[in-house]
Amino acid sequence: MQVSICGVRGSTPSPGAEFVRYGGHTSCVAITAPGDDRPRLVLDAGTGLRELSRYLGGEAFQGTILLGHLHWDHTHGLPFFPGGGDRRDSKVSVLLPEQGAPARDVLARMMSPPHFPIMPWDLLGEWSFGSLEEGAHRIEGLSVLARDIPHKGGRTFGFRITDDTGASLAYLSDHSPNNFGPGPEGFGEYHEAARTLIDGVDVLIHDSQYTAAEFPARAHFGHSAIDYTVHLAELCGVGQLLLFHHDPPRTDDQLDAIVSSLAAASVPVAAAAQGMVLEVAGR
Question: Do 51 and 26 touch, CB atoms closer than 8 A?
Fold first, then answer.
C-alpha cells in the first residue's frame, strides 16, 4: 500500500517560514491500495485534505474519508477539498465514530450557517455520511480495524489498516493514554486497545505532540508525549514510527532535533512531513 501524508499538524495550522519542510496543514493521510492508481481511503479531513488533489491525477475523488474524531483540526478541510466538494463527478463517503445521532446532523453542527455558508450535503458531487462502530470493517478494498482510544472531548478511534498483501499501518492521531493512569513512566498506560492496533505493524503514525518537559503542564490537553510514542512502538515491535500531530509552534529545526535525539531507539523514527509518500510492505 502507498501512504501519502497530506497534513501533519495538531490543533491548528502552522503557516510561516519556520514550518515549510514539515508542513503546516492539519491531519490528513491518504492510502492507495495495491493495484490502484490513486487514493480511495483517507484518514481524517484536516486542512491537509486540500493537498489530496495532487495525488488524484486530475480526477475527482471516488472513495471514503474516515474520521477518527470530530475536532476542528480533523474536519476543517471537508468544504475546501477541490477534488471532492468542487467536482460534480466526485463520489465521497464520510464515516465517523458513532455518536448516537445521524452522521450528517452531527457534521452540520460545525458546518452550517451562521458558522459556515453551506451545509455538508450542499457540497458538489455525490456525498454520503455514515457512522462506524469499533471492530473490523472492509472499506475501499482494505481491512480496517477501529478501536476506541482515549482522547479528551469526544469519541475517538484509532485505526489499523491492512492490505491484501499483509502490509499494515496503524494510525492513532490523537491519543491520551494517561486517561487510564500514569503508566510506568508517567506518560500513560500501554493499554490493550492501543496495543491491539499497533502490535507488529509495519508503520505506526502516532500522536507525538509534546516533549517530556512540556507534558506535565499539558497532560490534560488530551495528547501523547513523544517518549510514550517511542516506547509504545518499541514495546509493540513496530517496523517504522512516524511522529505525528506536531504541536503548532514546533519548528522544522526543533523537529529535526527531536528526531536526532531518538537515533538510539530500537525502532526507526522519523517525523511525518507533508508531501511524504511511503511504500508500505509487509515484513
Answer: no
Q: Which residues pair with 269 in a beta bridge?
A: 241
Place of cell 476542528: 72
| CA proximity to 94, closest of 113, 72, 121 | 121
State the DSSP H helix or E strand holding residue 278, giving kind and residue range, or none if neither.
strand 277-279
**Distance (Å, whole) CA 159 – CA 134:** 9
Do you find a cis peptide bond into 114, omega within 30 degrees of 0? Answer: yes
Kindly state the average pLDDT of the residues 142-153.
96
d(CA 73, CA 75): 6
**Torsion over CA: 36, 197, 235, 186 (sign):** positive
Alpha-helical runs (H) found in 40-182: 103-108
Amino acid, single-letter form, for residue 67: L
- Angstrom distance (rounded) from CA 76 to CA 26: 9
Cβ atoms of 46 and 173 closer than 8 Å: no
* 8-39 tens-digit pLDDT: 999 999 999 999 999 999 999 999 999 999 99
